[in-house]
Amino acid sequence: MGSDAVPEVTHFPAPESSSGELERAISTIVRWSTSREVQAETMRRARCQVPASAVSLLFRILVCGPVHPSQLAVFYAVDNSTITPRLQRLEREALIGRQADPQDGRAFFVRITPTGEKLCRRMHAARRAQLELLLAEWPAEERARVTTAATKLASRLEPPPPQD
Fold first, then answer.
1. What angle do CA 160, 48, 72 make, to 5 degrees?
2. Which residues have a Cβ under 8 Å from the Cβ of 91 and sit 6 or more positions away?
3. Burial of 76 (0-12, 13-18, 19+ CB in 10 A)
4. What's the predicted TM-score (pTM) here?
5. Residue 94 has what pLDDT?
6. For the purposes of burial, counting CB atoms within 10 Å of the CB of 116, is it exposed (0-12), middle (13-18) or buried (19 or more)?
7. pLDDT tens for residues 86-131?
8. CA distance 68 to 109
9. What is the mean pLDDT of residues 59-80?
10. Residues ≥6 apart with Cβ < 8 Å to 61
């Protein structure tokens, strides 16, 4: 290894504070929840044939309510041309629909359909089932404490829905 080579990190350094421990825990949870294995199992349990990237978009539309495609592009930090094919896929699957923007006749909102809402419920149930298996041996009080803390943190991390 030359003097300019950066050694490979094979483990996390010891956390220096509780926020360091929290950052490590969040990273581990994100890795778990975004792993191909967990996503594939969630999709299988939910009987979902839509690509994971489109499902993420569907969940965002569910959270936002009717939203302009350009607002979704801003949220995901991508160009409109990246969002459009995903929206078209969701529309072909009858998971979202369009509604005219009364303020701008050229623009439209996308909104989730009842079919899309059902898919979101199945996806949430499938993910919950996987978590319940992982937490089955935890005492109820500990699960409640973690749930309260994680929910509070999530509310601080989640960006608010777009405002017109």
1. 25
2. 97, 98, 110
3. middle
4. 0.74
5. 96
6. buried
7. 999 999 999 999 999 888 878 899 999 999 999 999 999 999 999 9
8. 5
9. 92
10. 67, 72, 90, 96, 110, 111, 112, 116
Residue 77, Ramachandran bin (φ over 0: left; ψ between -120 and 50: alpha; else beta):
left
Residue type at 130 in one-letter notation: Q
Sequence-distant (6+) residues with CB within 8 A of 129 are 45
> Tokens in use for 70?
């350009």
Query: In angstroms, rounded to a whole number, what is the distance separating the alpha carbons of residues 54 and 112?
Result: 13
* C-alpha to C-alpha distance for 10 and 29, rounded to whole angstroms: 18
Question: What residues form DSSP beta bridges with 110?
Answer: 67, 98
Phi, psi of 25 (to 5 degrees): -65, -45
Q: Are the beta carbons of 80 and 70 closer than 8 angstroms?
A: yes
- Residue 69 CA to its chain's centroid (Å): 17
For each of the domains in the chain, give its residue range(s) and CATH number, in order of start: 51-136 (1.10.10.10)
Tell me the two tokens of residue 3: 């003097």
Q: How far is CA 59 from CA 1, 11, 120, in A?
A: 46, 33, 7
